[in-house]
Amino acid sequence: MTHVVPADPQVLVTVKKKAQPSRSWAVLDSNGETTLLDVDKYAIMHRVNIHARDLRILDPLLSYPSTILGRDGAIVLNLEHIKAIITAEEVLLRDPSGEYVVPVVQELQRHLPVVNAINQGPEAIGQSDVEAADECVSPFEFRALEVALESICSFLAARTLELETAAYPALDELTSLISSRNLDRVRKLKSAMTRLTARVQKVRDALEQLLDDDDDMADLYLSRKLAASSPVSGSGAANWYAVSPTIGSKISKASRGSIATIHGDENDVEELEMLLEAYFMQIDGTLNKLTTLREYIDDTEDYINIQLDNHRNQLIQVCSSFHDIFERW
């Protein structure tokens, strides 16, 4: 007789957990303090309250387009190597030890810490400092988002500059000397340009799509939604906001008054719109540089084809002349 041994529920739970590989995350709070986590996707989903389909957007093994997605209590950010989840209180950044991710972690550590001038009171700071603080206040999630956008736009701009620096001299050399070596060099540069253009276009599309929809932008106001669901008053509301250090922001002044922002009209997205438009213009400028480079490559190819056609015609004429000579013989 065969005996069936009942499965131990604890064993099944253990097996299930082992089936889910853990991932490395860096968690940064509003003070810039960083904690490293090595947890599975269920722990992350529970921590930030998002669905598995949203977390899949951040899977480097899956090909998802660049995305800035607002959820109830989080922003899911997939921009090139920056794969992050931003809440009203912390930033979770995936694979923080990656070559291109380490600088992003460092930028967040530098720029997320704030000095809460509002809560320090006039005895701690002067009136001019209070006024300056009023002009710079911005929700935590926007400060984190700006670091990510600044990092990714600068990264792609740097890659574009590297490509321009290599491509323009190579194209000029090819027009001076048509050779297999120069042709192969330009061919590789053209392939690199095509790939880089696609990457820049994806980031531009993500920003444009967000800018085209006020409801999508409103979803990114996490602190405002948090305040609406859990009302606070007086100095408690001010705790969600503080002075934002300068990180090379393209915005001259943020919306005045953190209280107005947190309790403002849910349809008022002006502050975020200014932020997104600034980086949209930057990434669009990078795309324009790549478009100009593509046109230069196309013009060079046209020139080379004309030269090759001329050489071909000359060769045909020479061959024809030899053929006539041989015919006379």
Structural account:
There is one protein chain. The protein is of the alpha+beta class and 329 residues long. The chain has one domain: Magnesium transport protein CorA, transmembrane region (Methane Monooxygenase Hydroxylase, Chain G, domain 1), CATH 1.20.58.340. The chain contains 13 helices and eight strands. The strands form two sheets. It has a six-stranded antiparallel β-sheet with strand order 2-1-6-5-4-3, with helices on both faces. Strands 7-8 form a two-stranded antiparallel ribbon. Helix 4 crosses helix 7, helix 7 (140-176) runs antiparallel to helix 8 and helix 8 packs antiparallel against helix 13. The longest helix has 59 residues, at 270-328. Magnesium transporter that may mediate the influx of magnesium. Belongs to the CorA metal ion transporter (MIT) (TC 1.A.35.5) family. Residues 186-213 form a coiled coil. It is found in: Membrane.
List keywords for this structure.
single chain; 329 residues; alpha+beta; Methane Monooxygenase Hydroxylase, Chain G, domain 1; six-stranded antiparallel sheet; two-stranded antiparallel sheet; 13 helices; 60% helix; disordered N terminus
Count of DSSP strands? 8
Low-pLDDT windows of residues: 1-7, 9-18, 116-125, 130-135, 232-260
Q: Major sheet: order of its strands? A: 2-1-6-5-4-3
Q: Helix content range of the residues, please?
A: 55-70%
**How would you describe the shape?**
elongated
| Overall residue-averaged pLDDT value | 79
Question: What is the total number of structural domains?
Answer: 1
Fourth-tier CATH superfamily name:
Magnesium transport protein CorA, transmembrane region
CATH architecture: Up-down Bundle
From the alpha carbons, calculate the radius of gyration and give it in angstroms: 28 Å
Order of helices and strands: HEEHHEEEEHHHEHHHHHEHH
Strand percent estimate: 5-15%
Q: Which structural class should the secondary elements be placed in?
A: alpha+beta
In angstroms, what separates the terminal alpha carbons? 104 Å
**Largest sheet descriptor:** 6 strands, antiparallel
Find the CATH topology.
Answer: Methane Monooxygenase Hydroxylase, Chain G, domain 1
Task: Count up the helices.
Answer: 13
CATH class, please?
Mainly Alpha
GO molecular function: magnesium ion transmembrane transporter activity
Keywords: Coiled coil, Ion transport, Magnesium, Transport
Membrane topology: Multi-pass membrane protein
Subcellular location: Membrane
